Amino acid sequence: MIKGFKEFITKGNVIDLAVAVVIGAAFAAVVNSLVEAVINPLLGAFVPSGDLAKWTIDFPGLFAEVHLGIGAIISALITFLATALVVYVALVLPMNKYKEHQAAKNPAVEEETLPSEQELLIEIRDALRKNAAN
């Protein structure tokens, strides 16, 4: 069991995944601070509380007034969309362009097409006739 665990840990995939998680967490912190410091204050100018994260919708409950934190949900949604946009623009688009460039540079060798079922049956029939004639 220890040997199998050691092999699992030392594989490149696990190390790459660990690095990706750490970098992803740091990247998320950068995007979160950008959204909290720049985008939310700009949007806060259009909400009654002046701060998007503190914007609530109040309505009466059975025993006390209920405060729905709609601003926190909108803030989290904006953070998610900003993160997805930055990842797409900074990582996905360049990688797709790189792959297209590599594909254009090294065109794939066309694979030989396999014969159809009918062609195989004809070859088998001809081989059987040839063997029967001999």
TrEMBL record:
GO terms for molecular function: mechanosensitive monoatomic ion channel activity. Its main location: membrane. GO terms for cellular component: plasma membrane. It is found in: Cell membrane. SUPFAM superfamilies: Gated mechanosensitive channel. It is a multi-pass membrane protein. PROSITE patterns: MSCL. InterPro entries: Mechanosensitive_channel_CS, MS_channel, MSC/AndL, MscL_channel. The keyword Ion transport applies. The chain crosses the membrane at residues 12-35, 68-93. Keywords: Cell membrane, Ion channel, Ion transport, Membrane, Transmembrane, Transmembrane helix, Transport. Homopentamer. Belongs to the MscL family. Channel that opens in response to stretch forces in the membrane lipid bilayer. May participate in the regulation of osmotic pressure changes within the cell. This is Large-conductance mechanosensitive channel. It comes from Microbacterium bovistercoris.
